[in-house]
Amino acid sequence: TGMFTYDPGYTSTASCTSQITFIDGTKGELRYRGIPIEELATEHCYLETCYLLLKGMLPSKESLQDFDLELRHRAFLHEGLTKLFNAFPDNAHPMATLSAAVTALASFYDDHLNVSNEEEYQEMARRLIAKIPTIAAFAYRHSLGIPFIQPDIDLSFTKNFLTMMRAYPGGKMHLGPKGHEEIKEVEVRALDTIFTLHADHEQNASTTVVRGVASTGAHPYVAISSGISALWGRAHGGANESVIAQLEMIGSVENVKKYIAKAKDPNDPFRLMGFGHRVYKNFDPRAKILKTLQDELKEELHLDSRLMEIAGEIEEIALSDEYFISRNLYPNIDFYTGIILTALKIPKTMFTPIFVIGRTVGWITQWIEFKKDPTSKIARPRQLYTGE
Ligand code: CMC
């Protein structure tokens, strides 16, 4: 007793060794399996990134085709699981439904996995990656009280998700002034990039939860649903929803100064959502990629110029303010996703579920790494007792 290091928030504790993701927070560097995020975001698609994380290398053309085809076939949900959605109130937040549905999914698949047979783990992973977008889209459609759209085997991973979100029953798109408003390739590419940027981020809060649940020997899908619950909070993945809510609340460029003053006030709990990061103390490379993407898509996707102006003003003032400079507070990934997702006609309650879709591969890859690591132990920290 009395021999433990007190480290609230584990700011200086390495809880595992890992070969998946590398971050240099001072230089603003992020790599998956050694490959810089900039390269993955611009030269590869999300499914290639998933394969890279799971298998440790980028797929050949044939392997990618097989992987893609398998995910398309696995995107369907068991009818029994489909019934679960109706048990939730209409106004249920899709994150609550998503977490519950993934826990429920554990009851459909046996978890007696054989540690020496890596393929059993990989199959468990592919099934979950394939089904999560369907679960997320069903959760959303239930929240609107509209019929589910089944996955379409002819569509790519990302286009399929957008279709399940936006199509009318029967699979037809919204009827605009020029006929059916088909999903544009540029929209698919934008969302695909967002998924890639979210795919993994080493030992963040939700991944730490996933590994913690893994350490007790619970079902892998339960570990992931715990990760989903952890991600929901505003300090973590819930920030993307809060950023847009905050931009809407600020309402005009003139109001920005007032809210920056609130964020700086030590007696005011108000924080600028989408600012600051535990690891990045220079800039978040994912935010940089998204800012470029946002500028590229501005015209093509008719991004909301009012929200962009307010966001631009926040950035400009904060980045030259002593409070933010001295604390190394920069815009993070969540600061930029919302404006792009809004242009893709995705409502803000679905922003965190989109983070979930992208991050599932990271969680499950970390789960596999934990299981295969002979040094893994149950997560059981100690405390410094200060009571009676
Ligand atoms: N607005 C105003 N002040 C801030 C902010 C902010 N967004 N973030 C940190 N600070 C201040 C904080 O008050 C503290 O000041 P002081 O030293 O005077 O007490 C100092 O900066 C350090 O903050 P901290 O809370 O000790 O830092 P942390 O590493 O524990 O927390 C964080 C990191 C991301 C939780 C925090 O910056 C935050 O709450 N940001 C807003 C929420 C957000 O955007 N989250 C998304 C993170 S990125 C991806 C993801 O995980 O989703």
UniProtKB/TrEMBL annotation:
Entry keywords, A to Z: Transferase, Tricarboxylic acid cycle
Catalytic activity: oxaloacetate + acetyl-CoA + H2O = citrate + CoA + H(+)
The organism's place on the tree of life at top rank: Bacteria
Pathway(s) where this gene product acts: Carbohydrate metabolism; tricarboxylic acid cycle; isocitrate from oxaloacetate: step 1/2
The UniProt record lists the keyword Transferase: yes
Single GO biological process annotation from the record: tricarboxylic acid cycle
Active site: 277, 334
NCBIfam families to which the protein is assigned, alphabetical: cit_synth_I, PRK05614.1
PANTHER family found in the cross-reference section: CITRATE SYNTHASE
Protein name: Citrate synthase
